Amino acid sequence: xxxxxDNEVTDSIESVEDIKLAAISALETSExxxxxxxxxxxxxxxxxxxxxxxxxxxxxxIEDRKVVGAAANRLRGELEQLFEERITRSKSSQAxxxxxxxxxxxxxxxxxxxxxxxxxxxxxxxxxxxxGFQTVExxxxxxxxxNFDMLNIPADHPARDQWDTIWIDSETRSDVLLRTHTSPxxxxxxxxxxxxxxxVVPGKCYRYESTDATHEWHxxxxxxxxxDEGITFADLKGTLYEFAxxxxxxxxxxxxxxxxxxxxxxxxxMSIDWNGRxxxxxxxxxxxxxxxxxxxxDSSKYTGFAFGMGPERISMLRNExxxxxxxxxxxxxxxxxx
Length: 338
Ligand code: YSA
Prior knowledge:
Layout: H1 3-29, H2 33-44, H3 49-55, H4 62-93, H5 116-129, E1 134-135, E2 141-143, H6 144-147, E3 166-167, E4 176-178, H7 184-192, E5 197-206, E6 218-228, H8 233-248, E7 254-259, E8 264-274, E9 277-287, H9 289-294, E10 303-309, H10 311-319, H11 332-335
The structure holds 5'-O-[N-(L-tyrosyl)sulfamoyl]adenosine.
């Protein structure tokens, strides 16, 4: 080997060492995926520094080329391994997907609220509770006997047409139905208790009828019943006036008109003044002597009054809701307003 060739080998080996030092220090400071990629291109790429060094070995003797080539290839192997390790380290130091940033403000937990029908029912029953009425509840799946018969509505009575009925299919009996009103609870309460009685009965009712803005096929009612010695029509009017005063305010006008229900005599309906129009909100009357007798009461000794109202209709008036079907359409935009 001449002195010139000897120098060339030494330079080439030094170049391999230089590349190694430069590569190691550059790799340590490469953080982002872009930086790591440009490091790979600079040191390991087809046009990178190591490849350029290897291509420049042509002027060396074959034996010298082998020495420098082996050193350069060793370095390529080392750098490839360091690069892989660096990539692995960089991935594991990144935050895992879905991790929690505890500095962010917390999410507000969604909380439910009372359905507008429930709110209205509670307001109505509370008004009566404060007047001495007790709240009781009864079955929605009811017997024909309580829904009709004990209320003086016999099988062939035309009044049954008023309450188109949803019957329950049963192989064993044909007298089971979804109650069409809460009035069957009048019969059940009287059957199970002696006077004096003062109850209100909220609950769901079902009718086989088509729906429109003021009629649903299922809706709520609040029934009222008071039975004792000496109860008169004046008690009925006084109680319902007081109820209207509490729900609609002291200056709201109220009107009673004659109406017919087979289980009362006389029967009335009550309307309230709404922007100059009379809107009916309930049916009522003095409990029919036959209904008292059906429950085993002495109708010459006891009298009573009863009423039934629709809380959805009352809520519609109070809240200016134009369509009763909003109540049960499960639209949160409607429900969350209450
Ligand atoms: C009458 C006299 C009594 O001594 C006791 C109770 C009654 C009320 C009777 N049981 C009854 O159901 N009468 S009603 O058919 O006129 O309904 C009473 C109230 O329920 C109505 O004023 C209305 O507010 C509501 N209602 C009736 N059908 C409805 C309805 N609400 C929504 N959709 C329907 N389809």
